[in-house]
Amino acid sequence: MPGTLGRLAAVFGATVALLLTTFATAHAQSGEPWRNTSLSPDRRADLLSDAMTLEQKLRLFVANPSPPSPELGIPSRKEKDGCCGISLRTDLGVPTTSLPKGVALASTFSGTFARRFGFQIGQESWHTGFAGSTAPTADLVRSPHFGRQGESFGEDPLLGGRLPAGVVRGVQRQPGVYSLAKHYIGNYQETARSVVNEVLDERTLRELYGRQWEIIVKQGDPGAAMCAFQRVNGTYACASRHLLTDVLKVDWEFPGWVSSDFNACPDYGAFEQGADVCAPDLGTLEGLAAAVAEGTISAARLDDMVHRVLRTFFAQGVYDNPPPGTLDTPSQDLPAGQVPDQILDRGERLARTIAREGAVLLKNEGDALPLAEAEESIAVIGPDADWYIDMFGSPFVPNPARLTTLLEGIEDRAGGDVSYTPGADPTRYGDTFGGPAPVPSGVLRPADGSAEQGLNASWYIGFRGDDPQGDPFLARVEDQVNLRTGTGGLTASFGLNPSQAPLLPLPLIVNPVTATWEGTLTPAQSGTYQLGMRAMGSFRVFVDGQELIARNQVTLDNYLAPIELQAGESYAIRIVYRTDGPSQCCGPPRPNTAVRFAWVPPSAEASPQIEEAVEAARDADVAVVVANTFEGEDADRHSLQLPQDQDRLISAVAEANPNTVVVLLNGGPVTMPWLDDVPAVLEAWFPGEAQGRAVADLLFGDVSPSGKLPVTFPATEDQPEQLGIENPSLQFGNEDPTTVFDEGIFIGYRGYDERGLTPLFPFGHGLSYTEFGYSRLQVSNPRLATRSRAGRDGRVRVLVRNEGERTGTEIVQVYHGELPAQVDTPPRQLLGWARVTLRPGQQRWATIPVRLGTADHLLSYWRTTAAPPRFGAWVTPSGSVPIYVGASSRDIRQQGTMTVR
């Protein structure tokens, strides 16, 4: 029967193909030759372009979505944020799969998972009516404070190139969808992303940030690339002839088109430099027509722009298999269809698999994990453990189709006594400011005497005095004084905000505001507190009618004063605040509201919420603390500390219960002052919609952790600065900052090795519930190709054995040492890797090929010259190179030498 079905399927497929060919030929003969699918995408694009009027051509470049030209069969260029799942507005209620974020995928070191990840996005994009998906986000992580590193793929350009390339290939497996990869190039911060000038040399550009993108372009072949906001060496990335034309389109022979990030083209002149779509403000028919008529966009450039868009439409099947609704006049946000249930079911299984495989076991002393089946009681603690934890802004997937929270996952898997205590207030956008913790809601009560926790807040539009009169625009109880707006506030108003905390409505985000908060503070511990504000603007803080702090028009900083408070005594609090600081008001990208009522208490006992968590932990066999950050678009982290005083929470819980396991949900490194006090730490990243099930699978040992860190975790807050990498959030409020990449090629683990610094956890680190042994290293030498002889690939092989009692997967990593060159090269660089899954006692050879002369640029460096447009060339020096094989960049198990001839 299977053979019969197979033959029938083959006959059916051949019949369909014949019909399609006949249909295409008929159209070609009837005067529409571009419909002939046997022609190349380039030829079809030229034929269709020849048949188009100027207006039809200009429609291709109108802001997303572009108007279709159904008379020619041209669908809309309709695109959607989708780095890790299709991001549709919350109010639409259309479910899509929330996949783990890119850093979790990177931690799997798996190209197979990357392709499956991309295909899921591509299918859901097509079914909801979007031809373009902004996946993947490929921003090389320079700073651990970068707010969007969670959606990207780490600090190494080889890993950060190969896996995004796999995502691109996966997205484009779906006919009718193209990948709009972002953000080209050098994007590493959110704080001043639209104004910062990045100064870096050509070698750094090519070896790190460009190398990542060259791999994506040549191995993934995305239909389009999104250029970034910032300036590079004085020129906006979306108007840089060197970046867009010389490097991307000429050197790398990129055939697709370049689309700007939101209004990232400075003017119409960007088109002549290599941008093809500049949206939204420069994407109007009237404006484009005027630019063409005036010669700002030349005829040759317009022809090239048209060709690139049409070529991608043909190459990726958008023309022949347009997504639903794209031949009509589509809306930017509204989906044109639903994702079928079977695809959503498969998405949940994939999300669960990648979340499990990408989680990294950072620490596990005394076999604290996996949890024993016989555990009688588990105390789950954490401010958002009962909530959907995800990133903020465009990476947020608002309507996850098959969501389980951490609490639900643990409850379902444990099947026994599971309690839940938040221990802190929910995380929120204001937390990204770092600094002293917000005064928690547990000690605050409104002035009106209601039973709610928090303070009475009154918001007025416009700058008022210290005693605003009249009805406020907004009056409510707020659990904390801890708010931030700016561009992120505008994004939140679109529904792209995963926090439980209250938001400000749109008028208050783009107008000058005055706000007051009133109520009482009743501490649970007597002692000396630091109390006051972390804020930008003007403010006054009164305690029992006495002024404690007053500042006028200040920049963001800490403004606290010592005060003696007695446990159980209620102190009247009044705060007046205005958004009138330097360069603060009013609309994006200016900061606008930036305010926190903050404290430094004498100990954890000052917070009733922490004390409740301590009691719950003390009464349980094991405590699982779910700690998370809040980060994402327009939200660099000012500090690597956990927000909402979670560090203090973890320390207090660990003191009460030595069997405390910490589960981290975050996008990048955090400091861990409590690390020595807990036996186990599991890094789960932002794990998507199956977060509850996936984490429970790992905690209870249904699968063994196998993820490896794609980023280095600093040991201290200031360690990145020792590498020469400043905290980008310090540019908050600066309207014309410059960042010089003085560290050159020594970012991430390269920098730690070069400067002899010891991180908290090194690149590539990750433990398992079993142990692996390495032996019998074999190195085969590569040979460079010359005019008289062919090249030859090299190879590294090592025998890996599972020496434990559980099945597990090891990610074998190969690094090479300094190159035999006349320039400084990193002490170690990732050369390749292999995933090996072994049963107890099983052994297998792990083989890592070393192919020279590819976009990977293995064993090579960029030699800079002064001659444009290339400004240099890749060089692979002959000679011997050290080879290191191990379980991380600092856990080397075998060493050898490779000789390049």
TrEMBL record:
SMART domains: Fn3_like, PA14
PA14 domain sequence ranges: 450-614
Highest taxon listed in the record's lineage: Bacteria
Keyword annotations from UniProtKB, A to Z: Hydrolase, Signal
InterPro entries assigned: Cellulose_deg_GH3, Fn3-like, GH, Glyco_hydro_3_C, Glyco_hydro_3_C_sf, Glyco_hydro_3_N, Glyco_hydro_3_N_sf, Ig-like_fold
Signal sequence coordinates: 1-28
PROSITE patterns: PA14 (PS51820)
Entry GO MF terms: hydrolase activity
UniProt xrefs under Pfam families: Fn3-like (PF14310), Glyco_hydro_3 (PF00933), Glyco_hydro_3_C (PF01915), PA14 (PF07691)
Coiled coil (residue ranges): none
Family the entry assigns: Belongs to the glycosyl hydrolase 3 family.
Name of the protein this chain belongs to: Glycoside hydrolase family 3 C-terminal domain-containing protein
Biological source species: Conexibacter stalactiti
